[in-house]
Write a structure and sequence with these properties.
The structure is a homotetramer. Chain A contains nine helices and no strands. The first copy, chain A, is mainly α. Chain A folds into two domains: 42 residues, Orthogonal Bundle (Arc Repressor Mutant, subunit A); 118 residues, Tetracycline Repressor, domain 2 (Orthogonal Bundle). In chain A, helix 4 packs antiparallel against helix 6, helix 5 packs parallel to helix 8 and helix 6 crosses helix 7. The longest helix of chain A has 27 residues. The N terminus of chain A is likely disordered. The structure holds a DNA duplex.
Chain lengths: 203, 203, 203, 203
DNA sequence: ACCTAAGCGAGACGGTACGTCTCGTCTTGCG
DNA sequence: CGCAAGACGAGACGTACCGTCTCGCTTAGGT
């Protein structure tokens, strides 16, 4: 895919400091290996082979597989849409739809799945994932706060919890290969979240 | 030469058919290994050692690590509360609270995390997980249908989607070690789902 | 003494090249295992355990059990007597007697038996054995050539064939545990070979 | 009707005594497996599979691989020529030539190689081989005794030793894949043995 | 005509060894 | 000192056989 090694000319040390070419080659190789052979094929050895790098070079800069995985993840662009249509329901729907598409159509989905997997055993990945989750909820929460500011949402609503519910829905669909579903279900989910599922008269 | 008598009362073949004692010993050993050494320590070799079983005996009956994992999971009792308090909000809250507690206090949490992890690379585990998810949503959806029957929930609400939202919330908290949180957040989540997050006058 | 492990200090890699300590430890372990547990106990696993080496380290340098076996064999000293008493009959007798003693009293006998065994199934061992046989016949043939030079042996005699007959006799006695026999039989065999078994007047 | 047989006409027990059909099927399978897959492929499992026999049936009647091997060997016809041409040299040459051909052109060569191999680790095989060797030397020795009777061979010659030398030569050529050599060498070997290798005047 | 006893095919059992893979560490020699 | 290279001890992978065991069935011979 993104193979920069030009045949026989091997990269060498550039002196007593980190060689950015190597770092980049490793990141690229990591991503390529992950996409081509999946998470179980994502081994340090495979990455080193692909990057024409020595294993110690990888271990020197990334203490664990999780670290490399996170690095690859963060290297990806994040052009998820945070549209402002004036309607929270619409905003949330567009956000999730855009996120689903990104996960489907770019390496990010596979990478993120791998990170979640890794986090189940690697505490470092778990920590990183937790932090990234907090950030993400913060971001998504702003959609809700914006809506609250314009009176669309009740004052006592916790934007974090709403963001959590939305993100959870996305995660689960990623992890169970349900990113392909048509919009109806996603729209329903968002509608329930915003309007509730009660009958009009209930409460 | 090859001494097979390892101890005084080793399990033996009971003829040309499966020995249930061995099967059970393996399941027990699998669970114990998983809990003591976590998912990365969950190795066929380790399970075989622990169960005092030969590796081929495991491979004979469980084609993959995933299969064994699922078997161990299904072996667990599922005494999650499906209370019927007359209020869907309350029912859902109690259900999730009970599920959280079970995941926290029994091996099921760790086992289920491992299965989700495994499913990210093993298609068989993925399939089994998908099916189990469908079943679970079916079950949980009955809470919603019950509420709809008594007029608490709008007719056009899809119980599956509601169950999906609730289960997603649970999964994500399991996967990110947030099973310990106090009830407030959980209660909020359920409330938003049932009543919506809009201001009274909105819509 | 075949234990080279110096307590807890494990051998390590010495960089991107073969570690002679490991190689030697493996050779020593191989010999020890072969002598202590015989050919059926001569297992790559057992050698690796004994040498405190990883199996891949063995497979890296010795492609097969046969290769390791041959290496161990060639590592042994070959101080077989090639006396020059002026009498071929005597020379041959002393040579075979010395060879028998070496096979009896040093590991070489057991090792050589194992190699012959291995060569019956492993083509590589068969090739190596064939070559070593040729060399050996060449060597032993020199005894005959020396005798021919001094007129003791007829000109048309093929030293290789004589050496073959002598070596065959030795092999067979090794393979059938008849190294212990008293000298009478051996002396007869050599006498027949040199003088023939005919009556004086025959021909 | 309680026919549980899966095949069309599986062999069954014929009561509380050995079933000769099974025994024969096993012998045949053993020979076939040995010839088709060689000594390393000669496993009890393979023989059982091939013979459509249960492993215990084999172990019941043949305590070891060696026993089965020997049985297969003895099952072969032994039509080695023991010609009586009036010349011992000729008789021995014809005997060895015939033996070489038999080993080359029938399964016996491969089977005998396997037995020698097996005897290097299995004491039972070693014993059987030793005994069979004694018998064989006895037989071959008769050629020499016959010649001695007609005054062709000196009185003090031990026929056993002569037979041993001849058999050793044959064994070694079998074990080192030198059965194909042309007659010249074989003829020389026999000539040296009978006439000696000395110059006419030596002694 | 029943009953016991042993042989039969089948195949599961606890094991060991196979040869390969990856792990994370180590050390070299070049730049 | 960083780098590519790759050897190292360790140990898991999934498979093949080992030799033992039990099953359910078969039949012969003794009762």
């Amino acid at each position: 895919m993104t193979d920069t090694t030009t045949g026989k000319d091997a990269r060498r040390s550039i002196g007593a400091r980190r060689n950015p070419d190597s770092a980049e080659a490793i990141r690229e190789a990591a991503e390529a290996v992950l996409l081509e052979h999946g998470y179980p094929g994502f081994t340090i050895e495979a990455v080193a082979r692909r990057a024409r790098a020595g294993k110690p070079t990888i271990y020197r800069w990334w203490p664990s597989k999780a670290a490399l995985l996170l690095d690859v993840y963060q290297r990806q662009k994040r052009d998820v849409v945070y549209a402002d249509t004036g309607s929270l329901e619409n905003d949330l729907f567009l956000f999730l739809k855009s996120l689903f598409r990104q996960w489907r159509e770019t390496p990010m989905g596979q990478i993120f799945r791998s990170i979640i997997s890794e986090a189940q055993s690697d505490p470092a990945a778990a920590r990183a994932l937790a932090e990234s989750g907090r950030d993400r909820r913060q971001h998504t929460g702003q959609l809700v706060e914006r809506a609250r500011a314009r009176g669309e949402v009740a004052d006592d609503v916790d934007p974090q919890v709403v963001a959590d519910l939305a993100a959870s829905y996305a995660w689960t669909h990623l992890l169970t290969d349900r990113l392909e579903e048509d919009d109806t279900e996603l729209r329903s989910a968002v509608r329930y979240l915003v309007r509730g599922i009660r009958t009009a008269g209930a409460g």
